[in-house]
Design brief:
This protein is α/β, with parallel strands linked by helices and 478 residues long. The chain has 15 helices and 23 strands.
Length: 478
């Protein structure tokens, strides 16, 4: 049977684009459909704009620190409109880069929504029908709102980058990495941030000691963090005026309750499980993401979906329908951009280069871009204790740069070591630029370095990271 193309990719994010380009490089004919913007969540609505906002928010403390070092620098004000203009220009530029890369690789791009008609046929919203020997689904995920009346009044993470103006106050609901990153970013940009998380501690799944320090640091930055707390009710604030007269944080008068000029409507009145009632100019839900599998036609073809709607695949990213594969967040395996790219590369090697390649999901480093950052690779102390006897090497201290400026901020360097093999099972860093440090530490951990390998490495002095190779005595054993 002849097909129009060898591969049709549904989704123009980082994983889908990499897979399309690599497949085209093997001589395969490739088409790709994206109904939004090329670049996907990471480039357009996630990693890239978020990191640029992290950079912007970090300058808030710079003048005070500079003055401690003898510089005559005055505090400034943040211009959201100017920053957003430059941000959007950069995202437009990157989207153009992605399009040129695809077209330069010979990939035909369809700016349309795709739906599967059968195991080899894609129907586009433009009216075209394309047949393909192989189909790769790389549609990513989307942020979800909780099942709560009036939840539509809240923003989701995608909306933050489109705001016409920053609110004076914002409630962030959630305790994962997106919620915590956004809390630090917005607080750094001058927004009065309140955060609700229903759990006992933020950043569930990360090392307990590390996430505890992050929570303390966030509170020290002025973030009003409420643990064990969730939203019970919410409504448009204008409808609540005349009750107890409490306008809430950042809302000075009834005039402030008029609809904002930003992306979404009016301020929101919120009642919490702890009994608190308050009005916020904006509410942001960072309560999770779901795989984007609705409306593609997967279930009708026999593609298996998990309980959150994720596409179930084997070690080679193949679904229950042999011609259909899936990579990235839509599979809900490890939802990180570099992982999606690796999965796309493994797919091409398996299908188009004849080298069956399973994706290695073990010992994947990651970073949470709070302030300070959290970098992590391997097992947490809690998980390691469940697997075998361990030693913990941990050091928390005030780093030279901020201590000289009079700051009480602390950093954390932590190694989890197997008592039997002496291998470093996990490394956790809470510090400025922890993401940069963990990338290098992850190489050693991935190679199976032992604690003695770390000990034999000469320290770079004076640095924060030298603690990773100078901790000689175990803090505790378990």
């Amino acid at each position: 049977m002849g097909f129009d193309v060898d591969l049709f990719v549904i989704g123009g994010g980082s994983g889908g684009v990499r897979a399309a380009r690599m497949a085209a490089a093997t001589g395969a004919t490739v088409a790709l459909a994206e109904d939004s913007r090329l670049g996907g969540t990471c480039v357009i609505r996630g990693c890239v704009p978020k990191k640029l906002m992290v950079f912007a928010s970090g300058f808030r403390e710079m003048p005070a620190e500079a003055r401690a070092y003898g510089w005559d620098i005055a505090d400034g004000t943040f211009d959201w409109a100017a920053f957003r203009t430059t941000l959007h220009a950069e995202l437009d530029r990157l989207e153009g880069v992605y399009r040129r890369l695809l077209e330069g690789s010979g990939v035909r791009v369809h700016d349309a929504r795709a739906r599967l008609c059968d195991a080899h046929t894609v129907v586009l919203s433009s009216g075209e029908t394309v047949t393909a020997k192989h189909i790769l689904v790389a549609t990513g995920g989307w942020p979800e709102r909780p099942d709560l009346p009036n939840a539509h009044l809240g923003l989701v993470s995608d909306d933050i980058f489109e705001l016409d103006a920053l609110p004076k106050s914002m409630l962030i609901v959630g305790g994962g990495f997106i919620a915590c990153e956004m809390a630090c970013i917005l607080a750094g940009l001058g927004v009065k941030v309140t955060q609700f998380y229903r759990g006992a501690q933020i950043l569930r799944g990360f090392d307990d000691e590390a996430r505890g320090l992050i929570a303390e640091s966030m509170t020290a930055q002025g973030i009003d963090l409420h643990l064990g707390t969730n939203v019970v009710e919410m409504a448009e604030a204008a409808a609540m005026v005349g009750g107890d007269g409490n306008m809430g944080a950042g809302v000075d008068s009834a005039t402030d309750l008029l609809p904002q000029t930003g992306k979404r409507g009016c301020p929101v009145w919120v009642k919490a499980t702890n009994g608190m009632e308050q009005t916020f100019e904006s509410v942001l839900f960072a309560t999770g993401r779901r795989p984007s599998t609705q409306g593609i036609g997967l279930e009708d073809l026999g593609v298996s979906l998990g309980r959150r709607g994720e596409i179930v695949v084997d070690d080679y990213s193949q679904t229950a329908v042999p011609s259909i594969y899936a990579i990235g967040d839509v599979t809900n395996r490890v939802n990180l951009t570099p992982v999606a790219i690796r999965e796309g590369m493994a797919f091409v090697r398996t299908v188009f280069e004849g080298e069956p390649t399973a994706v290695d999901h073990d010992l994947i480093p990651s970073a949470v871009f709070t302030q300070p950052e959290l970098g992590t690779v391997g097992l947490t102390e809690e998980a390691a204790r469940e697997s075998e006897p361990i030693e913990v090497y941990c050091s928390s201290f005030r780093p030279m740069r901020s201590a000289f400026a009079g700051s009480d901020a602390r950093v954390l360097m932590k190694l989890i070591v197997s008592q039997a093999s002496r291998k470093v099972l996990g490394c956790h860093i809470v510090a400025p630029d922890a993401g940069e440090m963990i990338q290098l530490a992850a190489i050693a951990v991935k190679m199976g370095a032992t604690k003695e390998d770390f000990d034999r490495t000469v320290a770079v002095h004076p640095t924060m990271a030298e603690e990773l190779v100078t901790m000689r005595t175990a803090t505790r054993k378990a």
